[in-house]
UniProtKB/TrEMBL annotation:
Lineage, opening ranks: Eukaryota, Metazoa, Chordata, Craniata, Vertebrata
Entries under InterPro entries matching the protein: AAA_lid_11 (IPR041658), AAA_lid_11_sf (IPR042219), DHC (IPR026983), Dynein_heavy_D6_P-loop (IPR004273), P-loop_NTPase (IPR027417)
Protein name from the UniProt record: Dynein heavy chain 11, axonemal
Domain Dynein heavy chain AAA lid: 193-243
Record-annotated membrane-spanning stretches: none
Gene3D superfamilies found in the cross-reference section: P-loop containing nucleotide triphosphate hydrolases, Region D6 of dynein motor
Domain Dynein heavy chain region D6 P-loop as annotated: residue spans: 29-161
Length: 246
């Protein structure tokens, strides 16, 4: 790392925020996108954001959201195999997006369903609506014995992963860059809002950086994700707008 930084520059060793839209340009009905999740990553939020505002298909807002009925999120491993199959069939026919998270805590329930899913993906790779897309997400298996994702599914997918950020600066920078200008101008009490927002981001970076301890919460194991931070920002704005005294 030090050698590369010295000879080529710091930009080759600093982690940057992933451009999901650019990464997904090569996806197709026959080529799913497979998210390999790091602790705290939220593939649902990223995929919904992409479906709502990305321009990589038609250079216009796509509108693949749950509200429009064109985005389906079915967690595998919760006895929802039939629900997933129905969603895939509907999405392939009408050109919807389907996100299928593989839950690590229910990984022992998913093995049979993944084999069926692999066959369905192959079946729907032909003669489906051109807008049909499948997104799959899973955490890396702790041991080789627990690795149950079919090899064919992995080989046919675009694999996307974001490496864990190291250091307070990298984590803090990534969190701050996730907020756009509209978010920063969300609250009328701008000075207080930005000050406390920075504190929340700092707190988030602290938790995200405690890799040695894993996802530890207060009452149980829990990764403080970007979605949790977004909820905190909404609560912060509501509190500042409601109460006169900070």
């Amino acid at each position: 790392r030090n050698f590369v930084e010295e000879k080529l520059g710091s930009r080759y060793v600093e982690s940057t925020r992933m451009d999901l839209a650019k990464s997904c340009e090569d996806s197709s009905p026959a080529t799913p996108v497979f998210f390999i999740l790091s602790p705290g990553e939220d593939s649902l939020e990223d995929t919904e954001t992409l479906g709502l505002t990305s321009y990589f298909f038609y250079r216009q807002s796509l509108g693949f959201t749950r509200d429009s009925g064109r985005f389906h999120n079915i967690s595998l491993g919760q006895e929802q195999e039939m629900v997933a199959e129905e969603a895939l069939e509907k999405a392939a026919r009408h050109g919807h997006w389907v996100l299928l998270p593989v839950l690590q805590q229910n990984i022992h329930l998913v093995a049979k369903g993944l084999r069926t899913l692999e066959k369905l993906l192959k079946q729907y790779s032909e003669e489906s609506h051109p807008d049909f897309r499948v997104f799959i997400s899973a955490e890396p298996a702790p041991t080789p014995e627990e690795h149950i994702i079919p090899q064919g599914m992995l080989e046919n997918s675009i694999k996307i992963t974001s490496e864990l950020l190291t250091g307070m600066l990298a984590n803090l920078r990534a969190v701050l860059y996730s907020f756009d200008q509209d978010t920063l101008e969300l609250c009328t009490r701008e000075a207080e809002f930005k000050g406390i927002l920075f504190s929340l981001c700092y707190f988030h970076a602290c938790l995200a950086g405690r890799l040695k301890f894993g996802p530890q919460g207060w009452n149980g194991r829990y990764p403080f994700s970007a979605r949790d931070l977004a909820v905190c920002v909404t609560v912060l704005c509501n509190c500042l707008e409601t109460h006169t005294k900070v």
